[in-house]
Amino acid sequence: EKLRDRCQQLVASEHAHPEAIGAVDESGVAKSGSHTVGVGRQWNGNRGKVDNCTVGVHLSYAAPGFQCLLDSQQYLPKEWANDPERRKKTTFPTR
Hints:
Elements: H1 2-14, E1 21-30, E2 40-44, E3 49-63, E4 66-75, H2 78-81, H3 84-89
Antiparallel strand pairs: 1-3, 2-3, 3-4
């Protein structure tokens, strides 16, 4: 987290621009089982349909002459977010 925070500070101080934008997007990865952390029937943008998959949510920054990924996190569907015992079995954080 410290490295991510420092990178974001550098982007803000070195690449600030009035025409810059931030973009949030998701990416799905199809899965066939039920044990991968975060897997479930949810929207998979890569396939353009609801599918059994995991989903990552990404924050990027773009300015003229500069683009970067600022952060990325795994999305947890309700079935995972509301089940600390299920997360504990996979060593995914329980908070």
